[in-house]
Amino acid sequence: MSVEKDAKPAARSVRARRCPVCGKPAEAATRPFCSPRCRQVDLGRWLTGAYVVPGEDGEAAPDDFGA
Ligand SMILES: [Zn+2]
Question: Could you say which residues bind Zn(2+) here (predicted)?
């Protein structure tokens, strides 16, 4: 929380983040992604990983997720 406090406002905007999907510089409108499309792609991956088909992996602990 206090880490950003020391950073100058200008430095924050200059710092270009890379799109985690394709590696291009992120756009302000779709940060941290470069485009809505990449955002969707990442969202899809996230959902795919989160919503694992029940029964396939008996090792998973659902209780850990809800609470
Ligand atoms: Zn991208």
Answer: 19, 22, 34, 38
What does the DSSP assignment read for the chain? --HHHHS-HHHHHHSPPBPTTT-PBPPGGGTTSSSHHHHHHHHHHHHHHHSPPTTT-TT--THHHH-
List the binding residues for Zn(2+).
19, 22, 34, 38
Convert the pLDDT of each residue in 3-18 to its tens digit: 566 655 544 555 678 9
Ligand 1 center to 46 CA (angstroms): 15
Global pTM exceeds 0.85: no
